[in-house]
Amino acid sequence: MDIGSIFDAVILGLIEGLTEFIPVSSTAHLILASHFLGFHTTGNTFAVLIQLGAVLAVLSVYAKRLTEIATTFPTVPESRRFVYGVLVAFLPAVVIGLLAHDFIKTYLFESPRLICIMLVLGGIVLLAVDKLVLKPRYTRLMDYSLPLCFKIGLFQCLAMIPGTSRSGSTIVGALLLGADKRSAAEFSFFLAMPTMAGAFALDFWKYRNELNSSDLGLITIGFVVSFVCALFVVRSLLGFVSRHGYAPFAWWRIAIGVIGLIALTVTGT
């Protein structure tokens, strides 16, 4: 584990923490940055495994609320519906993730050009949705019905294609299904917990015998940096979205996608 690799791990951890919960696709940013930095770990697990740091950031910020939901779960129907809703939304990703894991990691994660195209297309979709005049029917997470949660979970599966964005897919889906911007973003936070923890567990188990001490050291560095950066994002994102909407993220996606395509063409990679 040399100085250059440590520096790359810090940069990638910074990117992960800052982009995981905004609709710009943290995976796309990590894969493109790793590609141009020449950074590689066994099975390309780094991008998936450091996401657990971002998950712990959400747990930290929402610890009080999660504790309240857990303690009232046996007696308060609203708390039970919320927990069941998150699990129902998580279910489609479990099924597709298990069935298509090898294809996704072998082919989709290895195509920087596809990722750039998906960044641009996703940015255009986000711009279009942000400009729609929608009348929200749901403004509180605790009011989300189980069918609504399941449908949002189906939208999340679009993020199996790197560059689409897990948070972007769930937020766009929630908005189109009647949620307001703030609660859509917040539901994306909570849905990230089982989804990203599941992806972490699957990748870690699959490559547990191939990861070496250098891989684990770099993953640990990226994990810590992503945790710290994600804390900042989770604490500030809801207010930003309420004031500015999602257009700034859409333009960022388009810019990064176009720059990436130009760089790939110039470098011939």
TrEMBL record:
NCBIfam families: PRK00281.1-2, PRK00281.1-4, undec_PP_bacA
Keywords: Antibiotic resistance, Cell membrane, Cell shape, Cell wall biogenesis/degradation, Hydrolase, Membrane, Peptidoglycan synthesis, Transmembrane, Transmembrane helix
Source organism: Aureimonas endophytica
Molecular function GO terms recorded: undecaprenyl-diphosphatase activity
Membrane topology label: Multi-pass membrane protein
InterPro entries: UppP
Name by which UniProt lists this protein: Undecaprenyl-diphosphatase
Domain of life, source organism: Bacteria
Presence of the UniProt keyword Cell wall biogenesis/degradation in the record: yes
Subcellular location per the Swiss-Prot or TrEMBL entry: Cell membrane
Transmembrane spans: 45-62, 82-100, 112-129, 141-163, 183-204, 216-238, 250-268
Catalytic reaction(s) noted: di-trans,octa-cis-undecaprenyl diphosphate + H2O = di-trans,octa-cis-undecaprenyl phosphate + phosphate + H(+)
Family: Belongs to the UppP family.
UniProt-listed GO biological process terms: cell wall organization; peptidoglycan biosynthetic process; regulation of cell shape; response to antibiotic
Other information: Bacitracin is thought to be involved in the inhibition of peptidoglycan synthesis by sequestering undecaprenyl diphosphate, thereby reducing the pool of lipid carrier available.
Role summary: Catalyzes the dephosphorylation of undecaprenyl diphosphate (UPP). Confers resistance to bacitracin.
GO CC, one annotated term: plasma membrane
HAMAP family xref list: Undec_diphosphatase
Coiled-coil spans in chain: none
Enzyme Commission identifier(s): 3.6.1.27
